[in-house]
Amino acid sequence: MAETVEAWFGRVIEKEGRLLRVTTDTGAGGAFAALAFTFDVGTVRVTAEGGTLAGGAFPATEGEAGTTANEDDPWWTVIGNELHRVTSHDAGVIVQFRPDNESPKIVQLEAAPGGVRVRTVV
Length: 122
Prior knowledge:
about 120 residues; mainly beta; five-stranded antiparallel beta sheet; four-stranded antiparallel beta sheet; 1 helix; 9 strands
């Protein structure tokens, strides 16, 4: 059985990974076909398959294809920050950068028609 997106992000959390880059592939309807999160400890690539999120590409992916989204919201606010928490939620996951006492940034990734939808929670 393939590992979940939550498990892939869990590996990053165990190694106290800091986000270096986010790249995206265009999807449909405001969603992304794929997102690649490059951390100092490896890369997690997220796609949507059959209404659920799928993950892979750890420990690292050289020259991750796609458009760099480091300056896009919400990613510009968390580049260089540690991934602190990940939890399952409906058709996706919620990821938290920075601890609760350090102005956390919480983002939801969910499977949607056309790919992966990103929504800022906090």
